[in-house]
Fold DnaJ homolog subfamily C member 16.
Amino acid sequence: MTVRRSTSRHPGMCVAQTASDYDPYKTLGVGRGASQAEIKRAYKNLAREWHPDKNKDPKAEDTFIKISKSYEILSNEERRSNFDRYGQMDESQPFGQSQHHHGFRSFHNSFYFDESFFHFPRSRDFADSKYLLHHAHFNSDVLPDSHKRPYLIKVTSEWCFACIHIEPVWKETVKELEPLGVGIGIVDLGFERRLANQLGAHRAPSIIGLVNGRVTFFHQAVVREHLRQFVEDLLPHKLVERITDDNYLSYLDNWHVENKPSVLLFDQVPIVPLLYKLTAFAFRDYVRFGQVDQGDKHCTRLLRQFNINTYAPTMLLFKEDTEKPVDIIQARGLKKQIMDEFVSNNKFLQVPRLVNQRLFDELCPVKQFHRRRKYCVLLITGEDQAFLPGNKAFVDFASANRKEVLRFAYVYQRQQQPLCQALRHNQAVVILERRSQAGKVLYRSVSGGWNGSEEDKYRLHEQLELLQKDPTYLSSDATLPELNNEMAPIFIIQWMNAAYEYILQIYDDLLYSNWREMMPILSLIFSALFILFGTVIIQAFSRPPKKDFVEVTELTDITYTSNLVKLRPGHINVVLVLTNASKNALLRKYAKEVFSFSGTQTLHFSFLNADKHCYWMPSLLRSVSDAAESEGQSDDEEEPSDYAGHVLALNGHKKYFCLFRPVFTGDDPNDSSSETSLSSDSRRKSRSSRATSIEVHHKLDRLGLWMERLMEGTLPRLQVPAWPSLDETANRDS
């Protein structure tokens, strides 16, 4: 029987070719007894020589298709056997008949087609619509997600004969890989030209792998085994470590250095399953993965020690205790959902070490008002052997007192000195609650230090119980700096490995791809080099001074109207009242307290000199008192003689202000009179008398918490009929 093959780009120009004319051995130039290595070597040499992008011969495309089809047959032992016996290229059909009835079986097969050609263009398969990618969706969702799982993307178009021809293999591959966690995408070259250009795909069909934001093109014959291997090759090397009796102890004990839990997979197969590799890739930043071959004679001691059932795959997860796993799953068919849930529930050690800011943010998130509070119990300790008993006792305490609202962690004082200095401790247990992304925390240290004794455990347990009953138990506040990244040396090694993989990819693209497909990679490399050297040059020639304080303007006759009376709606001016004697000390303290709020565009910061405008504050407070009396309210609070240290949040448009009064925190921080609440008459009386005796550097100790309440909108608002003038004569007459 005769089949037809297109010999030009016009579908009507066809010539006949019989099955007897086709011999894959002759095409590749190998004998019938050639080994798989010889066949593969011959295929690579010929593919490199006859690739249409490299060879401008008019027959290069047809020759390349024949070479690829020949390799597809001979690389599969079953197809090769059928061809040797019967001259067939399929498992069940003769060469000619198979091509006539099944059409495009492989991406690189010659353009054999049947009656379906005359029904072209066809409507798109409805099942493919859920995989269609758009430019915005790709950049916002798929690209970031490629750092957690690889993507296999097909570039197609409506008028594409070879796209029909690879469809059966593509569907089989998607059916196999998608349940394992591989992302699937389809890009229509006709409708998503912008996305195709971003990927570097300029022809259909193309198959692309995407991992860690890096694009890799598939160049082999489109068969399911090749596509599966392609996805596996996208993943970084050494994701899973081979574990035996010789190295399992060092592997489990390495949690001290890696600061991660360890997972061991016991399985009968010596090859690491793709599902396990994909899980290891998704959680590589949190957990270490190892694999034990149950059939290996060098793993018998491991199997006996952990009593492993050899009839089903088993996963063990270890944390600080290397003798006993904290979690176990065992099943004949481990599914992705089960493995993901198993690992995600154990992402952190019982007491992880804070090695960077990202880990701190995940373990101890900033307080959200619509969620429950999260408290971080932090042990500040050292790396020497003398600290090991205390550290182990802290881990035992954390394991016995795990609660949803508590997170236990520790830091090395030598590695995180700025953090320890901010908390004013070098060796202690500190309970803290994060209040803002700028580093604001409330904290309280456990008295007596920590050496792991039973008395220390009892004292810590007692303070945790008090904290859950009274959230105001945390009496101190501080602004924490960003944590030092202790994993920076490891990051350099990871960067070098990534650079090595990029070099290999460039080499591969030089062999198989044209320059248009290489443009995204080259653009990325040159952009990275430009940014790297540009940053070095900029830092070398321009070193702007570091700003530690917020800029504060003075309220004068010139700035008073624009900064208050005619302040834009929604804007608030936070004004500090000071005197000539207290100006330097109060301004320094004021700038430090409000610095974390200086990024808010609706807040302005000013100060008012009471020595220059001594009648303004009394006039403002009297206007509030007059308004209160006219409404039948009374305020028995005495006016202080010294207004230095008072802070007002003035809303010029709505004519109200919130008042911060200096509170005494120098001697007794637990004294109830230090609170800013106005609910007790006795508290008002004592506060006025004490405010005059406060040392200057203590007057604004609670301003940071008052600013938080201002941002929350929970401070009382005092209405004024009109803003008093800064003119002393006018205020004195009124």
Notes: The mean pLDDT is 79. The chain is about 40% helix and 15% strand. The longest strand covers residues 375-381.
